[in-house]
Amino acid sequence: MPPRMPLFAVMSFAAASAFSSSSLPYKLHVAASGKQLHANDEGDMLLSTRYQSDDDYSRFNIEVVGGSNAESVRVRVVADDRMLAATPQITAGSAQDDDDTEHFIVHTAGDVVRIQSVASKKFWVVDDSPSGFVRA
Question: How far apart are CA 43 and CA 41, in angstroms?
Fold first, then answer.
């Protein structure tokens, strides 16, 4: 198995409480490589750095979950509005149950963030391989 490096998304990213449905889409990049994340929703449904296309599969809407999960967010693919899920690979899964596998906590440090799965408590990481699959 290739080594894994932490995934840091580079962007201006406020605390979860600052998100609203009117927020602009975000592009997520791996800090170490600069590669952007892309959801392969028309194929294997996996989030990775394989494709470096500038399309709506590489843009994500962030929504606050609210309620008892007030600090967590949903991450949706702009192209098809599918929620990302940690299964443990990050996918635009078929279930779309809006459960803890599809809720994430965003930890910020300046313009760098770490994203953590609510279900597993694990942080997103990307394989240090040409495919760059994202897992939690």
Answer: 5
Whether the model pTM is above 0.85: no
CA of 4: how far to CAs of 54, 57, 131, 136, in Å? 25, 23, 12, 11
User: How many helices (H) does the chain have, and how many strands (E)?
Assistant: 0, 12
Query: Residues 64-118: pLDDT tens digits?
Result: 887 666 689 999 999 999 999 998 899 987 778 888 999 999 887 776 788 999 9
Are the CB atoms for 31 and 44 separated by under 8 Å? no
First vs last Cα of the chain: how many Å apart? 15
Contacts of 133 (CB under 8 A, 6+ apart): 46, 47, 48, 89, 126, 127
Alpha-carbon torsion (130, 92, 82, 28), positive or negative: negative
Give CA–CA dist 26/5, Å, rounded: 21
Q: List the one residue out of 76, 77, 52 whose CA is nearest residue 131.
A: 52
Asked whether the CA dihedral 16, 48, 135, 43 is positive or negative, the reply is positive
